[in-house]
Amino acid sequence: MKYKVNEKGYYGDFGGAYIPEMLYPNVEELRQNYLKIIDDADFQKEFHQLLKDYVGRPSPLYLAKRYSEKYGANIFLKREDLNHTGAHKINNTIGQILLAEKLGKKRIIAETGAGQHGVATATVCALRNLECVIYMGEVDIERQAPNVARMKMLGAKVVPASSGSKTLKDATNEAMRDWINNPVDTHYIIGSVVGPHPYPDMVAIFQSIISEETKKQLLEQTGSDQPDYVLACVGGGSNAMGMFYHFMDDENVKLIAVEAAGKGVSSGFSAATTYLGKEGVLHGSRSILMQTPDGQVVEPHSVSAGLDYPGIGPQHAHLFKTGRGQYVSITDEESLEAGLLCTQLEGIIPAIESAHALAYLEKMEFKAGENVVVCLSGRGDKDLDTYIKYFNL
Amino acid sequence: MNRIKQLFQEKKNILSIYYTAGYPNTGDTIKIAEALEKSGADMLEIGFPYSDPVADGPVIQASSKQSLDQGMTLKLLFEQLKDLRKTVTIPVLLMGYVNPVLQFGVEKFCEACAEVGVDGCIVPDLPMVEYEEFYKDCFEKHNLSNVFLITPQTAEERIHKIDGLTNGFIYLLSSSATTGKNLEVGNTTEAYFSRIKNLNLKNPTMIGFGISDKQTFDKACSYANGAIIGTAFVKAIADGNLEESVSTFMKKFKG
User: Fold this and answer.
1) What is the rounded average pLDDT of the residues A200-216?
2) How confident is the model at residue A251 (pLDDT cuts 50, 70, 90)?
3) CB A20 to CB B54 under 8 A?
4) Which residues span the membrane (chain B) (predicted)?
5) d(CA B172, CA B195)
6) Which of A102, A284, B127, B131 is deepest in the core (most CB within 10 A)?
């Protein structure tokens, strides 16, 4: 339990709830109730039933034969791309919508970058018949048009965030403002392991189904539930935290988190937070974030909207600082090439986010027989335009 | 004695004005303070801008962005405030978000405040528990008041805790809202203000968020020691002659 949250809401030096008083009652209500609600047997039953029948879990752990031949190790892909709505995000939104119902909330808000979390939120709101408002950066609305259409079709109101860089960070600001202005009936479904305590812990718990299943599947397929490596991409870090969760205390399992280097870590157009960032406070928690010496948040860049965020969740900052996790980065170009390679070797078009994790395989050296799990966090349908432009398809 | 405490001992119906440092122009910070004192403001809250001001509405966010784009930093602000006390005698607080303070260094920040003659701070996203554990000693050492916010949703037990930790005044938000929303004093707001008044807190209270004219100011004063105006003032000084804009704006309240 060394890497989990303590009773004060901290992971080592990181975490806490740095929120204005206007948000305190909402966050405190959550803090006092989230574990009680999640641990309740009826909640667990309903949550797992929906994950099975509605999301389609367990997602397969697929031994990718041609990848394995290429890299000389057993490469497993955890197929979160096969979930309903096409990414891992729905694991969290199912959990949070059930929790919001238990708290008696009538209105749901969320931020979204690539649109995957927005779609996953709009989906569960349709399913449970709750009002849904999604905040999305103007730039992201442009580059993720199909997801915007999906959200609208699902009955959500999509509100453009037009401040700052007009991406995920600004959408998060707008969602927080909405929550401040609607303090009683609204639940804010944060889509990543960021935000004030208890959000990072709550989202990690809902996403931990990824590693819970992986362990069982590995045991069946390899005879051991301990792989040599686990890889996942990190924006805020929710798929990575879900993928790492049940391996954190298995110190022999190496955890590799892949950040977006954008056009290169030193190019001025990057989202490689652990490389470029410093400790500070963003969106309600103390973590590592990209900032100026004056403490102003720096605008990030990544070809992948889901990784285009200037911070990482506090638990990731803790894994990074303690050395438990290895944090590396992959450029826009490397990720797009890896996306094409995955498509041609395995017949799977990955989301550009997930392609960052796959791209790092190229930089590793394996011993024969080593077991490597990569979280394929989402499918690439939403990124076709970007792939088409880059490869002149 | 701390200028804030003295003010509350001596005056009623206190008018406090918020403005963003370095807005509309980088060099305006001191000019605005002087003009406000001259036109009758009782207290000043100088905002040090932040890139992601989640508790603020569009007007203050835009002023913060403009100020930052023009080069404002906390370091520059303290340089600008070096001679503050040569011309400004009313209490001055700095208001802003916690991350710039962390990067500047908490100890260094408190020292700099004391050096230039700042009397207190309002840091909305600095939680009470963190303040108590890591900031309080430093603030008190430098004779700085730390002002907390309360909203209609703040529980009574917590209000008493805040009252115990504060040594300047308590910032009473008229509703749970980002800055710049209008004050609509309906029955529930009146009930909330009365409830707070009847708690007999040791600290004076100031009502903020949504005060924009004489009528809303007077209403606020009937429940608290005074009121804070931010968004309406920032809007009023956006363009035109600065001294004139300040004086015209203040005439609305000081008749």
Assistant:
1) 98
2) very high
3) yes
4) none
5) 12
6) A284
Question: B153: which chain A residues are within 8 Å (Cβ-Cβ)?
Answer: 22, 24-25, 183-184
Buried b (16+ CB within 10 A) or exposed e, A352-369: bbbbbbbbbbeeeebeee
Closest partner residue to B173 (CB to CB) among A8, A22, A184 is A22
Q: What is the DSSP letter of B209?
A: S
Catalytic residue among B56, B184, B213, B239: B56
A165 touches chain B (CB under 8 A): no
| Res. A184: pLDDT tops 90 | no
Q: How many domains are there within chain B?
A: 1
pLDDT band at B183 (very low <50, low <70, confident <90, very high): low
- CA-closest candidate to residue A306, choices A258, A263, A268: A258
In chain A, residues with a C-beta closer than 8 Å to the C-beta of B176 are 22, 180-181, 183
pLDDT in tens, B210-251: 788 898 899 899 999 999 999 999 999 999 999 999 999 999
Closest Cα of chain B to A292: distance in Å?
9
- The C-alpha of A279 sits at a distance from chain B's nearest C-alpha, in angstroms, of 9
What was the pLDDT predicted at A143?
79
Residues A309, A3 contacting (CB under 8 angstroms): no
- B133: contact with A, CB 8 A cutoff: no
DSSP line for A278-341: EEEEETTEEEEE-B-TTSPBPPP--SSGGG--SB--HHHHHHHHHTSEEEEEEEHHHHHHHHHH
Say if B108 falls within a structural domain.
Answer: yes
How far is A104 from A386, CA to CA, in rounded Å?
41
* Domain hosting residue B228, numbered range: 13-247
ipTM for the predicted complex: 0.93
Nearest to A190 by CA among A260, A234, A134, A152: A134
**DSSP code for B122:** E
CATH of the domain at B110: 3.20.20.70
Fill in the amino acid letter for B107. E
What are the pLDDT digits (tens) for B106-135? 999 999 999 999 999 999 999 999 999 999
Structural domain contains residue B6:
no
Q: Is residue B143 part of a domain?
A: yes
Residue B8: inside a domain: no
The model carries a pTM of 0.96
**Distance (Å, rounded) from C-alpha A339 to C-alpha A81?**
13
Chain A nearest C-alpha distance from B181 (Å): 9
Under 8 Å between Cβ of A245 and A211: yes
Average pLDDT rounded to a whole number, residues B160-184: 83
Mean pLDDT of A329-337: 98
* pLDDT above 80: residue A165: no
- A293 interfaces chain B, CB cutoff of 8 Å: yes
Considering only CB atoms, which chain B residues are within 8 Å of A165? none
Is there a contact between A297 and A156 (Cβ–Cβ < 8 Å)? no
